[in-house]
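Dear all,

This email documents one entry for the complex benchmark we are building for the journal club exercise. For each entry we list the sequence lines for every component of the assembly. Then comes the predicted three-dimensional structure of the complex as a token string, followed by one or two observations. Please use this as the template for your own entries, and keep the labels exactly as they appear.
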Amino acid sequence: MPKREMSSSLMWLHLLTRPQTRNILEEGMNRAAANLSKMVNRPIKVGEPWVEAIPLSQLYDHIGDPEVATVGIYLLIEGELRGQSLILFSEGDALYLVDLLNGKRPGATKTLDALARSAVGEIADNMLAGFLNAVAEFTGSSIQPSPPAVMVDMAGAIVDVVAATSIVANSDHLIVIESGFKDEDKILQCRFWVLPDPADAG
Amino acid sequence: MTGNIHSVSIGELVVSKSPQGVLVAYGLGSCVAVCMYDAAGGVAGMLHALLPSASNSRDSGNMAKFVDKGVPLLLEKMKASGALKSRMEVYMCGGAQMLTAPGFNNTLNIGARNVAAAEAALKDLGLRLRVRDTGGNSGRTVKLRVSTGKITVRTLGQGEKPLN
């Protein structure tokens, strides 16, 4: 990928469409997983990332049950490459994650209070930072995650946030780079979404 | 609530005369669901819209994702199914602000803008809102029963509650 002087939209176009940039996305997801692994002190497997255009009408089918209690961490991607990220855990997995992070036995954390939410936000922030580091290195651009916003609610309501900011008026599709993460016991699972800035993805 | 569930997904509007039908919008966040009901005609309709306005759009495709276009479309479809405007009961749910962290409030207050757009669209059509459950910071599932026009709203914290 040519460095420098590339607009955010051109960088996204390269990342999303060129076969040779696939390894950048893979490396990004690997680093996100490595950061998660370091924080919870256990191996994390990462699925191969894929890029897809999800039709708005199928968004809820894509996420599964739109009513299920979910923890979603929303972050903006800021700098020379702009976009947003959403990291989704089930409520149970988020509680488990907080236990792992604090070195407690699984089941010790019962509710996602302010402190636990902040811990989950921190984890997401680190994961996205790992992904963005890889992209920044390859593109020679300066990119940072915003502070995280943690939501605990129905999955559909959480996904509304990225739909409303990504769908923009001109498209009925949500462009998403997605990967799945699991720990070795497959207890902990999460979905990691990166979405190009809507103005750049059109 | 039993019956034949018709899921109304984002950017969809559904009108039903099926007495067994239940129209459901699952997990509304900043989206709004506008419900219309004509008891005498036995017609119920629901719009599940994502964005307040089509004004900046080059899109000529799906207009039901916009509140300002979707509300008049819903009224038209209700009338085409035999509903009368004079008998129409109108309800609205949703429009929550999901992001409450500092720094996101101003740019992403789409929920409030969706609610305002629906109020304006209904006023333009001369329709009065009967009951609403809008705003706040929680997701909602909204169910409208075709046979009775009864609406329930479910949130994670509060469970399922009747709206009307």
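Observations: The first strand of chain A starts at residue 44 and ends at 46. Residues 117 and 201 of chain A are 31 Å apart (CA to CA).
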